[in-house]
Amino acid sequence: MSPPEAVSAAWWPRFRVVLLTAFFVIVGVLLIVSAREIEWQNVGEALRGYGAATLLGAAALAAIGHLVYTSYDVLGRFYTGHSLPVPRVMAIAFVSYAFNLNLGPLVGAAGFRFRLYSRYGLDNAVIGRVLGFSVLTNWLGYFVVAGVVFASGSVAVPPSWVIGSTALQITGAAMLLLVAGFLLLCGRAERRSFHVRSVEIELPPLRIAMLQPVVSAASWLVIGVVIWVLLGQAIPFATVLGVTMLAAVAALLTHIPAGIGVLELVFVLMLEHEIQRSDILASLLAYRAVYYLAPLLVAGGVYLALEARSDAAG
Questions:
Q1: How many angstroms separate the CA atoms of 205 and 188, rounded?
Q2: What is the pTM of this model?
Q3: Would you give the distance in Å from CA 22 to the centre of its chain?
Q4: Rounded CA separation 44/38 (Å)
Q5: How many Å apart are CA 229 and CA 222, to the nearest integer?
Q6: 199: helix, strand or coil
Q7: First to last CA, the chain
Q8: Alpha-carbon distance 172 to 154, whole Å?
Q9: What pLDDT digit, counting tens, does each position of 203-226 carry?
């Protein structure tokens, strides 16, 4: 390695740490400032104002969303060709998703999949392919939903934001083109596997690839509907969905488990001119209760049952 390359290699990791630290500090300051401006008594009153029908409806939608997510791993079963029963695959996917939402992808998406799939006889190579397939499926659906919403101009970007409405529309169109390119590659490519560093990536058959963005888009749409219902349908659904898509990326960039605070910050910044902050925060707290915490409690029981069954089988 030449001296300039050595200097560059040593400089970039430090600069990256500085950038990430600055990013976290900025987000933290925004969260603190925003929290100090909130009248939490009003948030509590808004929460107490929810009727049983609204909460039960949101909970039912959340259950549907988690069920749809399990289809990622079912498709992954056909993609990899492993023979675990579909109900068991769905149970493992549900546990992984619930813990992923609350504790982050390293624990949920990866940790629980490797733990449970290996307990039922899959080797690490197959588990890694299932995990990679699931992650790809999730973001294909995200690109479809976000692409349509952004490209349509449904999201009104605040004037203070660096990225403007036109740039967001261009980004949305690019997302849709990337999904179309992936499907074209799966349908037309003669070479079916590629190596990225030491990882081998195998393209799925077109019939499976076409289902990936469909089921994932349905999952993202359900999330948007849950929040929209809890907001009292006071804001157009397309707007709520667009803000949800932006919040998902913000949460991903911060690496904060469950996107705690980040989701709320994005919604407040984007919607406070249309609806009171207390109502926004109440809806998001209710959303976390029905989509994050309640499924986590169920997932804990399912996990223990899966462990017990694998012990009995062993």
A1: 10
A2: 0.83
A3: 24
A4: 11
A5: 10
A6: strand
A7: 52
A8: 11
A9: 999 999 999 999 999 999 999 999
